[in-house]
Amino acid sequence: MTHAGPFPLSAFKSGPLRGRFRVPGDKSISHRALMLGALATGRTRIRGLLESEDVINTAQAVTALGAPASKSGDVWEVLGRGTGGLAQPAAPLDFGNAGTGSRLMMGVVAPHDIAVTMIGDASLSKRPMGRILGPLKQMGVEVDENRERLPLTIRGSSRLVPIVYELPVPSAQVKSAVLLAGLGTAGETTVIEREPTRDHTERMLRHFGAEVTCVADGERTRITIKGQAELEGRDVTVPADPSSAAFLIAAALIVPGSDVTVEGVLINPTRTGLYTTLKEMGADIAFLDEREEGGEPVADIRVRSSPLTGVDVPAARAPAMIDEYPMLAVVAAFAKGATRMNGLAELKVKESDRLAATAAGLAANGVQAEAVGDTLTVHGTGTVPGGGTVATHLDHRIAMSFLVMGLAAAQPVTVDDTAMIATSFPEFRALMERLGARFGEGLAP
Ligand code: S3P
Question: Which of the listed residues 50, 169, 176, 198 should we mutate to test ligand 1's pocket, taking the one with most ligand atoms within 8 A of CB?
């Protein structure tokens, strides 16, 4: 998808943020619900699907593969084709900005006798795909000209061979692509993971009736799927996205006098690293009414503005908060003392090089920070001068993180483009304004 624009926006110092809100559905779970719905037989009904550009691209992709996804009332329905039942699409599949959509879909199409051309925007076309294509090629997939970036054409096969694959990087996307390919492959496919990454694929595969086992093997976990099982269409409820909730929660922490509750947020332990870190920094955050929704743990998260202290964030926590580092770095600028974030190699290959983009955005707003190797250190003083313009590099999370900064900085903070926010959290601005946040189009006066 291409956008007009750019659409710059400035954020201004705001009064206390208050209210009780729900943020839209989790992006990771939304992609997976559409894909597994397409691979199941019969009808899958999805409540709370995130209707962002990334997820809509996945809905269009499964439709083009012969499993129509459409909305009826409040519910999305997918008419599945059964394991191995997807059809040759008539045109290239456009994933826009979506790493998850494109990478998981490589695993979905792999065990089919079809050739699928995948395209994406300028950001996605720079991102590494070799990490997914490597194991899929071991299984028997072919890629035209051995390309490792979009655009590319992947040729699947109904006669893939199962593999045992140890993840070279802690990536739920790689794990998921191999498991999804394994679902359509005779025999058992195993992924070995050294550090736990988000486990929504394993949970949802089981929910749809697949046999997935997780066995501890020393420090590692072996995740095995039994191939060519028939999945059955199911009802799925998507919890609120903790990565979107993070922006409201961070804003409430740094704007004095704030008191905000975000309802029904996913608190799967593979996703809550930010909340653990914020509590260590002294944040007043409570998980209320913990319960289960659609096979995932959720809670209402209440947060009140709090004085914060810098901490060391261990590298082992990175997979559980990988999308939240830009937001944490901004919060760390309002804390007293140094916050050291370790083990950030994967941050360099997200929608932008988030390590560089975050460090540059902090510097543009008068915050002392340095990125050295895989570590980002932010020297917080409790106040942030602001007054800078941040280059967002087609990255939604860079845009939202620095808009949050502007709500508590001395001078307004401007981001050079907000178009990409629609890829994950189209309601961001409206929800923040309902909380009491102040924004203005274009550059700050
Ligand atoms: C995702 C996994 C993460 C994350 C991305 C969503 C997923 O990527 O950054 O936003 O849904 O599996 P990696 O697994 O590549 O780290």
Answer: 198
